[in-house]
Amino acid sequence: MLFNSWLFPPFLAVVLALYFRLPHRAQNVMLLLASYIFYASWDWRFLGLLLLSSGVDWTLANLISREPSRRVAKRWVATSVAVNLVFLGFFKYFNFFVDSLDVLLANLGLRGLDVHLRVILPLGISFYTFQSMSYIVDVYRGHVKPAENPVDFALFVAFFPHMVAGPIMPSRLLLPQIQNPRRVTWIQVREGAWLILWGFFKKLVVADNLAPIVNQVFAADAAPSGAAVLIATYAFAYQIYCDFSGYSDIARGVAKVMGIELMVNFNQPYLALNPSEFWRRWHISLSTWLRDYLYVSLGGNRSGRLLTYRNLMLTMLLGGLWHGAAWNFVLWGLFHGGLLVMHRLATQEWKLWTLESGPARLLSRVVMFHAVCYGWLLFRARSFAQIRSFTGALLGLPWAWAGLSSPIALLLALGTMLWAVELWVRNADDPTTSVGWNYGLGALACAVMIVVLVVLAPPATQSFIYFQF
């Protein structure tokens, strides 16, 4: 079941109708069953994997909390991490590594493995696996007490608004909200309704209308001009932002209506001044997870300059691989790791510049945005050959702009609408925080947005991009 499917509104209506009539413990049971129905509607066969993963980690977390020996407790942590990574590695990376090894063996003149399985990637496995693993580590570190009630923990893992595409919620933020009774306020309902509406606008109006431009240029047999590559790369930058942040907004809005607060996952990332700030604004839940559970575990910046750079590169490499079983994702991760290393060298080692003046900050934002856009080219490309071809096209001046007036006009129109609203509400959950807002203006703005949704949303909606991860 997708947020943008016709099944979701009646599903949500039934869930909310039951939710507000039940006491706390019954709410949790109902939400857990609803979450499993939501997940099973995609493919019921993988519900068993979700149940097994949740059962293993609930059991191990309670063993860890009761184990007096830190050495033994660490073994239980290692067991949990190993089980989760085996599940994730098999379903997501088995064929990728087998195919890569076959290519390597062929280049060496050796026979391949001839081992290929038709493995279907379970929906949301990257997200709920990372969430469950962070819970185990938090219990071991003493940051959170283990959930004694298995229903509470299962709901923490499977809560349907965010389980298939995030945000990846830290246990210390989400688990107490599940364990304790919730009181829904009118402000939460108003904020949740706005987030749902704004999320659908970003997804259906902006992302889905830009998708044809991107798909045409990045097709396997395409040979576009440099100008077409540039426009398609800009279009993909806004498509992936509106697609993913739109999902996060809908997820946060649905949870808010039930009195549950999910973390902000995006904060106007294309206004970032540098690579470090970009990752504090983009996919915040993942970048926070990578920092807290990978970068810090590798040693962070505590072990000297060279190891700090190594840790940055390893963290971003694995962050890139997390996105998918393909070498372009690895290259994308290394690209962003290189940006972080260069920024750290320039600012902390070489002391090259400061950004105190307005023009310098504007220039930094423009440069950073275009660096991120080139990263999106690496991310979206189908092959290394396409990356080489498109990079060459971008460098091959002068560009031919013929036939691009319609894509440019659409990109400008949708981008203007997006930025007008984002700068107006300042990334707030509630537009009432904006200057000059009143209930009449608010009702008018929401009505206009609904009309635009109905008129401009394409008849065939696209699946959310991050469902493939």
Largest β-sheet summary = none
Please state the overall shape, judged from the principal axes of the Cα atoms. globular
Strand content: under 5%
Distance between the termini: 16 Å
Give the integer mean of the pLDDT values. Answer: 87
Q: What structural class do the secondary elements suggest?
A: mainly alpha
**Which residues sit in consecutive blocks of at least 5 with pLDDT less than 50?**
none
The number of helical runs is: 17
Q: Helicity, in percent? A: 55-70%
H/E element sequence: HHHHHHHHHHHHHHHHH
Number of strands: 0
Cα radius of gyration in angstroms: 23 Å
Number of domains: 2
Any overview of this molecule?
The protein is mainly alpha-helical and 469 residues long. It folds into 2 domains: 8-182, no CATH class; 187-273 and 355-468, no CATH class. It is built from 17 helices and no strands. It has helices spanning 8-19, 24-40, 47-66, 70-107, 125-141, 150-158, 171-179, 186-217, 226-257, 275-281, 284-298, 305-322, 327-349, 358-380, 384-395, 405-425, 439-456. The chain is globular. The mean pLDDT is 87.
